[in-house]
Amino acid sequence: MRFLAIVRFTLEEAARRRVLLAMLLCGGAFLVLYAVGFHFLVRDLAGEKGAMATLTRQFVVNMFTIAGLFAVNFLMVMSAVLLPVDTLSGEITTGVLQTVAARPVARAEIVLGKWLGHLLVVWGYLLALASGVLAIAWFTAHRAPPHVPAAFACLALEAAVLVSLSIAGGARLSTVTNGVLAFGLFGFAFLGGWVEQIGSFVNNDATRNIGTVTSLIMPTDAMWHLAAHLLQPPFLAQMRMSPFSMGPVPSAAMVVWAVLWIVAALASAVRGFRRRPL
Amino acid sequence: MTNAAIETRSLRKRYGEKLAVEDLSLTVRRGEVFGFLGPNGAGKTTSLKMLLGLVEPTGGAGTLLGAPLGDRATRAKVGFLPEHFRFPEWTSARELLRFHGRLLELPDTIARERAERLLGTVDLLDAAHRPLRGYSKGMLQRTGLALALLGEPELVFLDEPTSGLDPLGRRLVRDLIRAERDKGTTVFLNSHLLGEVEATCDRVAFVKGGRVVRERALAAEGEGVEFEAVLRASGLDADARAGLERFGRVLHDEGDEVRLSLASESALPEIARWVVERGASLRHLSADHVSLEDEFLEVMGADHRPG
Ligand SMILES: Nc1ncnc2c1ncn2[C@@H]1O[C@H](COP(=O)(O)OP(=O)(O)O)[C@@H](O)[C@H]1O
Ligand SMILES: [Mg+2]
Question: Which Pfam families does this chain map to (chain A) (predicted)?
Fold first, then answer.
C-alpha cells in the first residue's frame, strides 16, 4: 500500500536523523539525573519514623513520580513539535516532494503517512521515557502509581494533538512560522491550565472559564492534567493538595474533544496540501 | 480515446500577479521525442508541472495518455525527472528506488531486479548503498534518471536533464533518451540546450512568455533544412535586389549586403549569374545551414534579453 510506503519511509528517516538522536540523548540524561535524585530522596525519607511518615512517604514518592512524568511530558512535547515541523514545508520548499507526488499516490496519503510515521516515533519516545520513570520509581521506592495505562493513553493523545498540529501547519506555513505557532499554542494552553488551577483554588469562576476555553482551543494541557489526576492514589487526588491537580479534573468529554480536534487538524492538513503547488 | 500522448488546450497558470504560462496548446504524439524549447522563465517547468498534476492549472484543459490531467492512475505510466533534482539526503540511491518501487506498487522481486538493472545503466552500482548527501551533482542526476525510468513509463518528462552535467553525463542522457525512443516511449524534454535537442528530438516547440510561438518537426539528416545565404556586391540596383526575392525570402538588405533564406544550396550559381548579369560586382556569396540556435534567436526576437 502506498500509504504504508510513506509511513515506512518516514520511520526510516526518523531513525537516521540527528533530531531524534538528540532527543534520545536528552531523555537519557534526564533519566540518569532523575534516578540519582530519586535514590537520595528515598534514602532521606527512610530516616523518618511514625504513622504519619508512611503517609508522607507515599505522598512524596507519588509526587516525585508525577514530577518525573511532567518532565517527560515536556520532552515529548518538544519531539512531537520538532520532529514533524519541517517534513511538509521543508520538502515543499526544496522540491523533494515533487518526485513523490508525481507517483500514483494521493496527496492525502502523503500527509497521513507522514503523520502516522511521526506519531509512531513520538509514541515510542514517550513510552520509552515514561516507562523509564516508572521503572526508576519501582526499583528505588517499590511503588507504582495507579491507572498507568489510562494515563499513558492521555499522554499519547496529547502527543497526537501536537503531531497533528505540526503536520497541519507544515501543509500551509513555513517551517519557522509553523514551529512558532505550535509552541505558542502549547504555551497558551499551558498558561491557561495554570490560570484554571489557581482560579479554582481561590474559587474564581472567571479564571476557571478561561481554562476551559483555552483547553477547547488547544487540548494538550487538559490531557496532561487528566493523566496527572489518574496517576494519584484516590485519597491524594481527592485532597486536591498536589501541585499537579489543584483544579477541576478534565472530563471524559475533553478526551472526545481532543480526538475531534485531531480529526479536524488532519482534515485541514489534507485540504491545505492538496491545493499546494509543488 | 485520442492517440496523442499529450494534448492540451489553452492551459494557463497564474501565480498571484505573475502569469507563468499564458496559453499552452500543444499535441505530442505517442512515441516521439518532443523538445520543449525556450529561454529561462518562459514557463517550461510550470507547463510540465501542470501536465504532471503537481500544479493545478488556472485555466484550460488537457489529457495525458488519454486521461484528463491530474488523473492519479495515469501517473503510474509516467516518469519524471525534475529540474533541480532534490532528494532526501539521508537515504541511498538503492533505498530511494525501493521506496519509489513501493509507491508504484511493484512486486518486491520486480522492484529489486529493476532497481539493480537501472543502477547499472546509470553506472551507480558502486555508490548505490551510500547516502545521497555524499553524491556529486552528476551522480544525483543519474539517480534521478533511474528514478524516472523505474516504472517503465510510457511517457517520460525530463526537465533540463543535462544542466550541470559533464560531457560524459550528457552522452549518457542522450543514449538513454534514444534507448527509450527505440522502446516506443514518448519523451518530453524541456531544455534550453539546443545542441542536445537537435541531436535527440523528433519535433520541437518554441515557447516564449508562456505560449507556443512555433512548432515544427526536426528534419532527419539534410532533408528540408534551411540555409541562409549571404551575398555581398557593389552596384546592386533596386531592380536587382527585388529580383532576388524569387530565390528565397530576403532576411536583410542593407548597403552592400543582402541575406536570403534558401531551401537548398543549389540556387547559389543562379544567384551569382543573376547578380553579375545585372552589372553588379559580386564579392562574396555563401550559404550556411541554419541551426536550431539561429532559429531560436530568430523566434525569440531581438527584444529577448538573456534570462
Ligand atoms: N511558484 C511560483 N510562484 C511565482 N512565480 C512562479 C512560480 N513558479 C514559476 N514562477 C514564474 O513563472 C515564470 C515561468 O517559470 P518556469 O516555468 O520555471 O520557467 P522555465 O522553466 O521556462 O525557466 C517565471 O517568471 C517564474 O518566475
Ligand atoms: Mg525550468
Answer: ABC2_membrane_2 (PF12679)
Question: What b/e string do you get for B87-113 counting C-beta neighbours within 10 Å, with b at 16 or more?
Answer: bbebbbbbbbbbbbbbbbebeeeebee
The helix (H) or strand (E) run that includes residue A128 is helix A107-141
C-alpha cell at B160: 533540463
Structure ipTM? 0.88
Nearest CA to ligand 1 atom 10: B20
Which residues are B206's β-sheet partners?
Answer: B37, B214
CB contact under 8 A, A96 and B86: yes
User: Domains of chain A: which residue ranges?
Assistant: 2-275
Give the DSSP H or E segment for B37: strand B33-37
Which domains does chain B possess? 4-219 (3.40.50.300), 227-289 (3.30.70)
Q: Per-residue confidence of chain B (307 residues) as pLDDT tens digits?
A: 457 999 999 999 999 999 999 999 999 999 999 999 988 889 999 999 999 999 999 999 999 999 999 899 999 999 999 998 888 999 999 999 999 999 999 999 999 999 999 999 999 999 999 999 999 988 999 999 999 999 999 999 999 998 778 888 888 999 999 999 999 999 999 987 787 788 888 888 989 888 888 887 776 544 445 677 889 998 888 888 888 888 887 878 888 888 887 877 788 888 888 888 888 899 999 887 777 777 777 777 755 555 4
Name all residues whose Cβ lies below 6 A of ligand 1: A 277; B 15, 18, 20, 38, 40-46
Residue spans of alpha helices (H) in B14-166:
44-52, 93-103, 108-121, 137-149
